[in-house]
Amino acid sequence: MLYVIGLGPGDQNLLTAEARQIIQQTPIIVGYATYIKLVSNLLKGKTVIQNGMHGEVERCQKALDLASEGQDVVIISSGDAGIYGMAGLIWELKSKQQLDISVKVIPGITASIAAAAHLGAPLMNDFCHISLSDLMTPWEVVAQRVEAAAQADFVICLYNPRSNHRPHKLRQALDIILKYKAPTTVVGVGTDVARLNEVDQVTTIADLDETTIGMTSIVIIGNKNTYAYQGKMITPRGYQL
Amino acid sequence: MLYVIGLGPGDQNLLTAEARQIIQQTPIIVGYATYIKLVSNLLKGKTVIQNGMHGEVERCQKALDLASEGQDVVIISSGDAGIYGMAGLIWELKSKQQLDISVKVIPGITASIAAAAHLGAPLMNDFCHISLSDLMTPWEVVAQRVEAAAQADFVICLYNPRSNHRPHKLRQALDIILKYKAPTTVVGVGTDVARLNEVDQVTTIADLDETTIGMTSIVIIGNKNTYAYQGKMITPRGYQL
To answer: Mean of the pLDDT values across residues B192-217?
Structure first.
């Protein structure tokens, strides 16, 4: 059996019981080195196979190969494995290679949900997830989604908002969003959520300082009804109060 | 302290460690009766305050009142409390009434993530959440969001897709989606996910039988690259394989 497990944002308190139990019971763990560290206390006596960033395909292939040999294997993602994580690649490779192995995906807390809990209640109305990385989705497609989401007044969660290699995509996305949303629209940013160095901020599109945003940030842009209160952002559900 | 806790879809294996621990340590639990039952084994000796459907405002007010008296209180939602759950209402009421209490939201596994894990890997590219209930959002706004999401080829998760009181909204939404997505677009439906009577299906927009969908279903409509394989739905991330 190959288990594909989402660890949540990092704090083991946010691991599900099922994820923890399967990690503890499975002899082989495969993962990105940074995420392996997050569960190092659970890995005593196990075979640990880790590699670096951009090694996703190699990592998934290794996990599939071991499972094909009849071994029980866990491959880990941060957040939820099914959201920009390893679950898709595992299923893609399994289907292309017609591998006769069993795959079980164990859900986890994705970054938007963890950040939202700390930022207030920004996701209480319809929302979308958009990754601003154009490594695997053409920027034209990303930009079209940003535009559609802004026009229909979704709350917008931006994954991979900004990195040293892509310093300008966030600004480009915000410029598209500003065609439809006011500069006073509330924005929340969670950086290193549920880790020791977590920093949260609630501001507006106009006042957002992009340089505070990095690889481990998630940006949540409110809808026209989202308001700020005591450093939190709140999107009304629509109750008459 | 008022803790707002998402239980996940129902199976306690999908509860986070933090959620379980806080429920166990807190003397007062407030919730919708159906969700109270999901954690009844954790509630021995506690004060349990429960009411029925559509009692959300009353329930939240009760929890806020008890917290205002200085008590430690848990209010529960299914899924994640911040996604169509109690977190927003708690924050809205706290802000409107200027209540001097501390609120902590504990994240949980929302229905789309739980269903996606069982349906394959449908959420591996940009996606959105839309609730088809027009009880609190005007249908024109919902319809505009469905249209925008379909046009920009998001994967679309439909919450509250169909009930006896709203039997036709799903059909209306699918008709909008079919203006932009092919009838062969892959659709997954998870009903009672992570509960004993769970039923999952992977089909297409054309073949979807709406009468199989109810209050406890979540519908996930793929993007143009989503494909079906061995009863699962897989949305490619964009890797060159």
So the answer is: 96
Beta-bridge partners for B16: A16
The boundaries of every CATH 3.40.1010.10 domain in chain B are: 2-106
Residue appearing with tokens 């495969």: A30
Sheet holding B103-106, edge to edge: B47-51, B28-32, B73-77, B2-6, B103-106
Distances (CA, A) of B118 to A229, B123, B199, B225: 38, 12, 10, 19
Phi (first) and psi of residue A116, to 5 degrees: -60, -40
Weakly modelled stretches of chain A, pLDDT under 50: none
Residue of B nearest to A128 (CA): B128
- Please compute the mean of the pLDDT values over residues B181-209 and round it to a whole number: 97
The residues of chain B that CATH labels 3.30.950.10 are 111-234
Q: Contact B4/B105 with Cβ under 8 angstroms?
A: yes
CATH number of A2-106: 3.40.1010.10
Q: How far apart are CA B225 and CA A88, in angstroms?
A: 12
CA distance A43 to A50: 12
Neighboring chain A residues of B145 at a CB cutoff of 8 Å: 126, 152-154
Cα(A70)–Cα(A2) distance, integer angstroms? 9
The answer to whether B79 touches B6, Cβ cutoff 8 Å, is: yes
ipTM for the predicted complex: 0.97
Main-chain dihedrals φ then ψ at residue B33, nearest 5 degrees: -50, -40
| Nearest residue of chain B to residue A236 (CA atoms) | B88
Q: How far, in Å, CA of B186 to CA of B137, rounded?
A: 27
Strand order in the sheet with A155-159: A199-204, A186-191, A217-221, A155-159, A127-131, B127-131, B155-159, B217-221, B186-191, B199-204
Tens of pLDDT, residues A84-114: 999 999 999 999 999 999 999 999 999 999 9
Beta carbons of A93 and B241 less than 8 Å apart: yes
Q: Which CATH superfamily is domain B111-234 in?
A: Tetrapyrrole methylase, C-terminal domain (3.30.950.10)
Q: Would you state the pLDDT for residue B45?
A: 96
Q: What is the pLDDT of residues A179-198, one digit of tens each?
A: 999 999 999 999 999 999 99
Q: What is the DSSP string of A207-233?
A: T--GGG--TTEEEEE--TT-EEETTEE
Cβ-Cβ contacts under 8 Å, B83 against chain A:
113, 116, 123-124
Residue A49, helix vs strand vs coil: strand
